[in-house]
Structure formats: C-alpha cells, structure tokens
Amino acid sequence: MTEFPKPAGNAAPAADMPKRNAFTRFLDGVEWLGNLLPHPVTLFALLAIGIVFVSGLFGWMGVAVTDPRPAGAPGVAEDGMIRAVSLMDGDGLRRIFTGLVDNFTGFAPLGVVLVAMLGVGVAEKSGLLSAAVRSLVLGAPPKLVTVAIVFAGIISNTASEVGYVVLIPLGGAIYYALGRHPLAGMAAAFAGVSGGYSANLLIGTIDPLLAGITQEAAQLIDPDYTVLATANWYFMFVSTFLIAAIGSLVSIYIVEPKLGPYDASKADPTILDDGMMQPLTDKERKGLRWAGVTLLAVLGLMALTLVPDWGVLRNAETGDRMDSPFFDGFVVWIFIFFVAIGYAYGRATGTMKTDRDVIDAMAAALSALGLYIVLVFFAAQFVAFFGWTNLGAITAVTGANFLVESGLTGPAVFFAFILICAVINLSLGSASAQWAVTAPIFVPMLMLIGYAPEAIQAAYRIGDSTTNIITPMMSYFGLILAWATRYQKDLGVGTLIAMMLPYTIFFITAWSVFFYLWTFVAGLPVGPGSPTYYTP
Length: 536
Known about the structure:
Layout: H1 22-36, H2 40-61, E1 64-66, E2 81-83, H3 90-105, H4 108-125, H5 128-138, H6 145-155, H7 162-177, H8 182-195, H9 206-218, H10 233-259, H11 274-277, H12 282-306, H13 325-328, H14 330-349, H15 355-367, H16 370-388, H17 391-406, H18 413-425, H19 431-447, H20 453-466, H21 477-485, H22 493-521
Antiparallel strand pairs: 1-2
C-alpha cells in the first residue's frame, strides 16, 4: 500500500525524505491531465457542437443499426432501422434554433433541483443545518467521535454543500481539540461527505437530479419510461451504515496511525476557531426541539397522504402506494420538509422573524445556483442533440451487441461499469455533469441487455462517489486543500490524495460487492417500485 508522508512533528530532514513514489507521480499525472480539460460549461458546449458535426458526417455516411425493439413499438421506423440524423442540413439547423429554449426549460433535473433548493436554503439560512451537525458530532462519546463524524458527513449530503462548508473544518477542529491529528478528523469528514456522497437515510437534492438525467437517457430506448426520485432509496439507505462502518474503520486503523502524532508548530496559530467548537446554546437547543416537533408533524402529514386507504397521494386508479403521486412528486415533500423545520428553528432562535427572512433565504439559495443553471443550459442542448441525432441509440445498440457477442451480459458487467464511472470521475468531478454525459450511452446500452435504469443508476453512484475524494477535479477539493494547509503548511495535493486513497480502495471494493449481493444474489430492489431487470 502507498506509504503516507510522515507527520509534521516527526518530519525527517529534507535530505532524508523519501522520494515521491510511482503511485504519487501517477496521481500528479492524473491531476495534470485533468487540468487540461476545459471548464464543465465549456466542455458541454464543445460536446454539443461536436454532436452537430458528427451527426452531419454520420448522416452523410448513412450510418444505421437494426432497432432491437419490436416492430410497431413507439418510435420504431417502418424499416426497423435506427439511422443517424444530421443536424447540419436545413431541417437540423431549424430544429436547433426552434428547440434551444425548450431544451433548457424542459430539462428534467432543472425544475426539481430549483424547487428542492428553495427549501434547503431556508433550513441553511436559519442555522438549523449547522446546529444539527454540531449537535450530532459534539454530543458523541469520545470513542465514537470518528463514527459520528463519518456518519454526519453522509447525512449532510441531504443539504448539498453544508457538509463541505461546515463539517470538514469542524472535523479538523474537533480532533485538534482532542489532541488527535486534525488531518485525520478532516479525512474522516471528507470521506463521509464526499466518498459516501450517494448514501443517505433521506432523499436529497442529488436524487431527483440524477433520476431526471436517467429518465432522459432511458427514454432514448423507451419513450414512456419514468424514473422516480426515490429510485435508489432502499439501497442508499442501507449503504449509509456500510459506508459509515468502513469509513470509521479506515480512519481509526489506517489513516490516523499513518499520520502519527501531530506537531502543532506547523499549523497556523489561528486555526482553532472557538466558535466551531462551542457547544449548543440554550437558544439553539430550543430551536432544535421545535424543529423536531415540526419534523414529526411533517412526517405525520406525509403518512396521512399515503398510508390510509383514503390517502390523497396514493394512485387514484389502483390505490398503489409506490406508483403514486406521493413518490412522483417527492421533490415537493423535500421542499415542505426543509421550509417547515427551517422556519420552526429560525422562529425559535430569532434568526427568522418574518416572511421576508424566508424569502431572502430562498433567494440566496437560488443565487448560489447561477453556475449550475449555466451548466444545465449547455448540458440540456447536448442531451437533446444526442437524442435527436440517434447517436445515443446507435452507440447503445452497438455497445450492447458487443457485450452480447463477447458474453459480457451477466451481472458481473456492473463491476466493469462501476470502475469505468470511477475512472471518468477523476477527470469530470461533478456527479450531474458526468452522468449527463455518460447516461445517454450506458443507460440505453445496459437496458438493451436486460437491466433496468434504476439499477444502472445505483451502480453509477457507487463509481462516482468513491473517487470524489481523490480527484482534484472535485469542485471542493481546492477548498479542502486550503483548510488542510492551515494544519500543515507544507501539505501538497499528493499528500491529500494519498491520505484519502485508502477510503477509495475500501469503499469501491466493499460497495461494489454489496451492490452485487443486494441486487443479484438477494434479489432486492434498489428502491420503491424499482425493477432490477428490463425487457427491451
């Protein structure tokens, strides 16, 4: 296994320091290559333009494949072929100009993320999220502090960046105050927040986002296919405890011993923020109590709309609970949940006194999504162009035929798929950006050999999450590196990556095996109403 750098307090003289090993040099190369990629927005713009030119070439060449869907099915041509459609002729250019706005406003993930973030913004601005994280971590017994930090990191994913902004520096501060190596505390928090990004007990903003992208990709094969925001909830719920256990064990038995005793002389003297280590005030405890009461009320309301036979959000025709408006519109519950408990906390603590405070919190949450909205505009064009040109369907059929001919159609294909996603994530760190690029290829491809989009999405999330912590392309990586250098001034990117590498190795190995056992051995669904297999 890769050797970790010696802790600052026991650093050897420069002449005796070991040379950078081959693995660290490899990671430096990955970082260099990753930095050559353009900004994700530019990348999607270039991909969209590239699709236009490729479609013109393929259309001129007459590229086509046999449609695997039965004759007469929706979208199947009379001659049973899928042909490349050019966007470089008159019809194609007219379609681009008239469809550009609709592609953007109709992009499935956009609306659900905006609605969810309205609620999350209220909870964050009121101070509820910060207080809840501090309550969970600071209230843990000393022997369980590592478990609490990793677990809190996983749970914080419900509220997007709150884990990066609050919990990771808090993890370092807690370890520093306890006389333990602060980088180990930051590593444990980072592993939970980012390495376990897809695991959670609750449905978060990433769930409807990925489900929308998956649905867009699935409809390249099946135009009527829908993917719910809860598509992976069962699997991710149980994965929370798996990742918390593995992350804690790696922290306690691998990362912290390798770091050794901490030499505080190498730290910034102002590093310990007393405010982060302050126990909850009486006002904050009161706020959490009122938030808890409101939480029970919201859960009770949710149950009343679904559990009874007369539940208004059950399927009106069949009475089914899973295939119902309750889950189809689950993003509305996310909005109601965070607005209600956030406002209750804010009223109790005085951080929210009027409706203007709630409105300001919502506006602040959406103002932070400016870059995401720009990204979505170009991602939506790429996805639409990919579908219009039939290049996604042609690639999927060709890839599926290759897998069939090579015999790589069994469940073991998911191990290769997870590894591919993990490698791609090293250069394209955004979960939504990566899935927007790869879903139109892999979802139809694996659907055509018999696997459901919900299971494919769950496997993707494993590959995406587990390498977040070792890629400089992850959006918060630079921020975490900056925080870490306050504890060890000479810390470099290679040191941070090497420190996090054991988590990646154990996470991707154990999580992939667990996915295989859960889905294909035990035969359990990955989420409510989520099939494992799909019949083309």
